[in-house]
Amino acid sequence: MINSSASHLCAFALTLGAVCALAAFPSAHADDTPASKSAAQAEKLSPADQQFLQDASAAGATEIAASKLALTHASDHQVREFAQRMIVDHTKLARNLDVLAKRHGITAPAAADSALIGNLQNLQGAEFDKAYIEKVAVDGHQKAVELFRNESESGKDTALKAAATKALPVISHHYAMAQQLAKTKAAP
């Protein structure tokens, strides 16, 4: 009898789980092609939110690409350590933004700033360190702080706004670290 009751309880739980799972999805319509779903989802984002996603993704791609270069082109161990931390943190952030973008039908990956990456590729050692610190670490994070602050204050999409608000302290910390690195490396 106990096995029968447990069996019925288990079957009920599975049925309830299936009903809840089906309720989470909208009913299918004939015009629900992947293209129409993507277009409809993308339309839900305001132009400013779409621009934020594009700019944040591009900034992250640039940060990651430049930091990977720093691992082989930088001469200073502090610059390489900073770069390694940026790769880890910005990869996590990029994954989170990618999930949000895909929810809205935005699947094209953002490209890194090819001009900046191209300039950095041609540098080695102390020249690379100086350019990376100035253009990527300091300038890049200053722009990112402004970008994420604006989205956290003015974003229309609640998920994007929450993601920007959550990421802002990390990016602000990166900016403070970059400023400190710049100050340390500017000393004779």
In short:
Residues 1-30 form the signal peptide. Helices cover 81% and strands 0% of the residues.
Secondary structure blueprint with pairings:
Elements: H1 2-23, H2 34-43, H3 47-73, H4 77-103, H5 114-121, H6 125-154, H7 158-186
Helix pairs in contact: 3-4, 3-5, 3-6, 4-7, 6-7
Kindly describe this structure:
The chain has 7 helices and no strands. It has 188 residues and is mostly helical. The N terminus is likely disordered. It has a single domain, classed as Ferritin, core subunit, four-helix bundle (Ferritin, Up-down Bundle).
Q: What number of domains?
A: 1
Give the name of the CATH architecture.
Up-down Bundle
Secondary-structure-based class equals mainly alpha
Series of H and E elements: HHHHHHH
Mean pLDDT equals 82
**Number of discrete helical segments:** 7
- Cα-atom Rg, whole angstroms? 23 Å
Strand content: under 5%
- CATH top level is Mainly Alpha
The portion of residues assigned to helices is: over 70%
Low-confidence stretches: 1-42
Per CATH, the superfamily is Ferritin, core subunit, four-helix bundle
Determine the N-to-C terminus distance.
83 Å
Protein name: Membrane protein
Keywords: Signal
Signal peptide: 1-30
Domain DUF4142: 48-181
Keywords for this entry:
188 residues, mainly alpha, Ferritin, 7 helices, 81% helix, disordered N terminus, Membrane protein, Ferritin-like, signal, DUF4142
